[in-house]
Amino acid sequence: MKAAVLVAVMALVTMLTRFLPFVVLRGKTPPYITYLGRVLPPAIIGMLVIYCLKDVTLTAFPFGLPELIATACVVGIQVWKRNSVLSILLGTVIYMVMVQVVF
Predict the structure, then answer these.
(1) Rounded to an integer, what distance in angstroms lies between the CA atom of residue 73 and that of residue 53?
(2) Are 67 and 53 in contact (CB under 8 A)?
(3) pLDDT tens per residue, range 74-94
């Protein structure tokens, strides 16, 4: 019973945080929100790439080759297929195979 109440409260709070902006703004999106929606996704992706590659060692074996090859595959697949899930999944698989088997 206690768990059901907790789940119900969490669901209600989650729904409230999702629906509240639509209720408050009533379909009128402020210009700064439109601007943030346009510039934040590429900025966040750039920060994630930098974070993922920050510990790559270029002066010792394997000289960052697994990361470079996997990153190039992700970019290539994304440009070719325009499918984020596919490019990230294949890039991860390629990286893990190289780290576990090749290098």
Answers:
(1) 15
(2) yes
(3) 999 999 999 999 999 999 999
